Every structure is written in structure tokens, then in C-alpha cells.
Amino acid sequence: MSDQQRPEQSQEPPGTTAEMTPRPKDDMADYEGRGLLEGRRALITGGDSGIGRAVAVAFAKEGADVAIAYLDEHDDAAHTAKLVEQAGRRCTTIPGDLSHEDACRHAVASTVEELGGLDILVNNIATQRPVDSLTDISSEEWDATFRTNVHSYFWCTQAALEHLPDGGAIINTGSVNGLRGNKSLLAYAATKGAVHIFTKSMAQALVDRRIRVNCVAPGPVWTPLIPATMPPDKTAEFGTQDPMDRAAEPDEIAPSFVFLASERLSGFYTGQVLSPIGGETHPG
Q1: Which of 48, 63, 77, 229 has the most CB atoms around its CB within 10 Å?
Q2: From residue 135, how far is each of 145, 149, 173, 182, 187 by CA, in Å?
């Protein structure tokens, strides 16, 4: 086994951090905030673990109160909340299946009620399943993937627009697979392409309100989604196909979200897809 490989491992979806070997670096332990998000209120879907956890902690260290919406990974959510609170900010946890519209609207309403408002929305949840052929995907699975990865972004954004102030921010999580496709992740890649275009279209629609809408499209990142959705042999080699020959840690991706959330750093950015993808290059 090379230094870049991990032990073969698998979990039942949606996966938990505690069962991963090695555990991801997702607590932003050495990150020092500068008050870039002081007084802001943020909702992060999928904020219990992985990229969402790292973003929640980074936002807290920058001065934001945070709500995290998640499916049912209660231990992971509790740990994220503890990290946010250790950074001196409030955290509310909101369980629910965001592939359903009512859960999305509930997450937004609960955030506003618990935190007193909403300034930043991070649409981050996703699901995937590798396949050998398009014929391996049922209509039900195709629909479920889009409901989680695209419809939830639409529902949460629509609900959030009733509360976001002019000058607020929306950040969507895309993927390198939405930039260049992936023959084994057909449904997932299609949803991420949709997220990228949704980002650009919403940026145009909201420019008059000065609500900036951007996207972070990472390459491979070591999160619970990987052992929960990939075969053990693929999990062991995950990330070794990119030029840097490794997967990113969530801590390496979270600063991109801080950048796009901060008016001070990215006030002239909207409709952009920021791509921390380990050295791959793509036209456009």
C-alpha cells in the first residue's frame, strides 16, 4: 500500500466520521479567524461532517453563528456543534431528510428562529453511487440523486430568499465531476453540472439585490461519503488519480467557502465556480 492509499473500508450510507481510517482533518484546528463574518448567521446543509463540518468551524472562527442541517448522523452533528461552540459562537442542529421540500423549508425556518436571521446559505448535501453502466441506475435512484443534490438546493434557496438581506451570500457545493463528467458517477456528475449552472443563473437573477451566488467545486475530498458509497478497493485508492496524487482534507476546502462568504474578500465575485481540484485543468 502506497503512502497515498488508505485501508480498504466501507460503511452503510450516509457514513460517519468515527468509522473512517484515517479520520479526516475537518476541525480547522490551526485556522485563525480575522472577524470576516462577524455577526453573520449561516445555514450549512450537510454541516455535520466532512466539508460541511470544516466550513461550520471556519465560519464560527470568523465570527458567525451557525445552523447545520443533516440527515440522521447525530453524533457527528453534536461534535460539529461542540467545535462551533468552542470557537465562541452559537450552533443549532437540524436533523431531517432534505430530499423533501418540507424538510428544506423547516431547516431555513428553524435557522431564522434559532439564530435570529439568515445571512449566508451553504447548500452542501450530496449523495452518489458508482455504477458500471447507465442501465444500472433505476429511475427511482436517478430521481433520488437529483432530489438530494439539486432539488434541495432549489428548495433551500427559495426559502432562504425570504430572509436573506440584500448583500447576503449563497454558496453551493459543486464538484470536479460537474466540470468534466465521470462515467462511473453518471447521476452524481449530472447533478453537479446542474448545480454549477444553477449557481450562474441565480447569480444573474439576484445581482440587483447584491446577493452573491457562487460555487465551490472540489476534486476528491476524504469525507464519510466516500467509504459510504464506494467499493472498498476504490476507497483505498481514492484521490490518487489527480495530479497531486492524493485526496484533499476538508480543512483544505473550507477556506474557499470563507473567501466566497466574505464581502471583504470576494465582494466582486458572483456566478463563479471556484475549483480546488488538485492540479486538474479544464477549459473555461
Answers
A1: 48
A2: 15, 20, 27, 15, 11
Give the Å distances, CA to CA, from 218 to 13, 90, 116. 21, 28, 31
| Cell numbers at 10, concatenated | 466501507
As a whole number of angstroms, the distance between CA 238 and CA 236 comes to 6
Q: Which residue has the cell 440587483?
A: 208
Q: Is the dihedral of CA 198, 26, 121, 143 positive or negative?
A: positive
Chain position carrying cell 463574518: 37
Contact 163, 206 (CB under 8 A): no
Cβ-contact 53, 83 below 8 angstroms: yes
pLDDT at 284: 53
Residue type, 225: L
| Per-residue pLDDT tens over the stretch 170-194 | 999 999 999 999 999 999 999 999 9
Annotated catalytic residue 31: no
Distance (Å) of CA 199 to CA 99, 154, 194, 215, 274: 19, 10, 9, 6, 11
Q: Which of 31, 153, 188, 269 is catalytic?
A: 188
Contacts 24+ apart (CB under 8 A), 100-106: 100/147, 101/151, 101/155, 103/69, 104/152, 104/155, 104/156, 104/159, 105/155, 105/159
Neighbours of 106 (CB within 10 A): 16
Q: What is the pTM of this model?
A: 0.95
Q: For residues 84 and 56, is the Cβ–Cβ distance under 8 A?
A: yes
Contact 53, 26 (CB under 8 A): yes
